[in-house]
Design a protein that fits this description.
Elements lengths: L1 H26 L3 H27 L5 H32 L4
Helix pairs in contact: 1-2, 1-3
């Protein structure tokens, strides 16, 4: 059960990551600001993952948890990333994003 939760978490993290990167491109932030936001993003994702691990299985990291992490990332990255980015860009074009 826990590996499925981790797969879902990293699937959602991939979606949030792509939205974040599209916003960075649109906002045209300076390099130091992007680096700061990258660190903040990954800190938030890390805290979120370990918080859910703590709630679900007392914080134990086992092989099947890592399997869930990589399967969630892989499913999003290889199956849905291009489609999701094109959908977000189409939505953004309604607001005249480039």
């Amino acid at each position: 059960m826990e590996w499925k939760i981790q797969a879902h978490i990293f699937f959602v993290a991939g979606v949030i990551f792509d939205i974040y990167h599209l916003l960075i491109k649109v906002l045209k932030l300076k390099k130091y600001m992007i680096m700061t936001l990258d660190i903040l993003f990954w800190l938030i994702i890390t805290v979120m993952v370990f918080w859910i691990l703590l709630l679900e299985n007392y914080g134990e990291v086992r092989f099947y948890i890592l399997l869930g992490v990589f399967s969630g990332m892989g499913c999003y990255w290889y199956l849905l990333k291009k489609s999701f980015i094109s959908i977000i860009k189409n939505i953004g074009s309604c607001f005249k994003w480039k």
